[in-house]
Amino acid sequence: MAADRIPQRRAFTLVELLVVIAIIGVLVALLLPAVQAAREAARRSQCLNNFKQVGLAFLNYESGKTQLPFPTYSQDPLTPQIVLGVNNWAPHVLPYLEQGNLIAGYDVKVDWWKEPNRTIVQNPVSVLTCPSTPNPNRIQDKPETTPPNKTGACGDFVVPTGVHTDINNALAAADQFPAGADLQGVVAVKSEFNTANELKNVTDGTSNTIMIGECAGREDVWRGREFFPVDYTGSPRVRARGGAWATTDNPYDIGQRKAWHASFDPIPGNVAINNSNEWGHCFYSFHNGGSNFAFADGSVRFLAEDLNLRTLAELVTRANSEVPAAP
Q1: Which residues face 215 on adjacent strands?
Q2: Residue 73 per-residue DSSP state
Q3: What is the DSSP string of 216-253?
Q4: How far is Cα 157 from Cα 215, in angstroms, rounded to an integer?
Q5: Is 46 a residue whose pLDDT tops 70?
Q6: Rounded Cα distance, 45 and 132, in Å
Q7: Confidence at 247, pLDDT banded by 50, 70, 90
Q8: CA nearest 283: which of 51, 60, 57, 56?
């Protein structure tokens, strides 16, 4: 009687293995964009939540002080008895963002880049940073003719002080703002014409007026999605000024084309969301298709980068007798 044959186990052939690997590769290629999109959606949602917290902090500041902060502070010749250093809005608002411990030793009588403030402002503040920014742990280290350098951790949020008249250069004739138009923003600079930033001044409606926007990635320069790393010592130097969360270069009037150096003028493209993060230009984020904003009523919204420029400008001005419906 012949011995029972032991069935032999058939292994995968090389061709079969290659086919399986190819199928897996195709599935991964199909899945990866979906995973990346899900991650970006989560980051955008976290950024929007940060905007919500910062917007509420501004409003809580207003509830306690009966007015919003000014975008920048410096010694006022009209009130020399009040000693102030060169600072921006952040040290005044951070206590309302549960950052009281960080800011406890901050002295508003001292410039932001000098001690004791110098050590404090080198701490990153996550709530002022967009999770989609490629390098969230940036440090501004701008050299000064008189040391020390202006050094501080960077943030991605900007307070638009209003709309610059240069925006007319980017608008069609029918959309241009007339001479004398009130182009101040919710958080406008202090002047003889603006002695307090009160919500009652937002006559265009708090739900239709931007209070905080994104200008992410500074001090590196971004034009579209083209990256130019910051260079303080090169000729010409490269800098999207206003990176540090404490710097007075943080806020600006939108609508300008102030390139980092005259040889790089003008800023290419249209004045629009996500065109450039250079100081004074517009708003800029690393979100696909638009940017996040906090409005003066505490609401937060994502605005598309193809939003009409005149409409965007109307959303920034607080009292120019326009009531655009915020998209």
Answers
A1: 284
A2: E
A3: TTTTSEEETTEEE--BSSSSS-B--S--BTT-TTS-EE
A4: 6
A5: yes
A6: 10
A7: very high
A8: 51
Beta partners for 34? Answer: none
CB-based burial of residue 11 (10 Å sphere; 0-12 exposed, 13-18 middle, 19+ buried)? exposed
Q: How many residues are given for the chain? A: 327
Alpha-carbon gap, residue 227 to 306, rounded angstroms: 21
Check: CB of residue 230 under 8 Å from CB of residue 220: yes
What's the longest Cα–Cα distance across the chain? 117
What confidence tens digit (pLDDT) does each residue in 93-139 have? Answer: 999 999 989 999 999 999 999 999 999 999 999 999 999 999 999 99
Which run of H or E residues covers position 162? strand 160-163
| 258 close to 285: Cβ distance less than 8 angstroms | no
Which residues make beta-bridge pairs with 191? Answer: 194
Do 318 and 188 contact (CB within 8 A), yes or no?
A: yes
152-187 pLDDT tens trace: 999 999 999 999 999 999 999 999 999 999 999 999
**Rounded to 5 degrees, what are φ and ψ at 85?**
-90, 180
Q: What's the one-letter identity of residue 38?
A: A
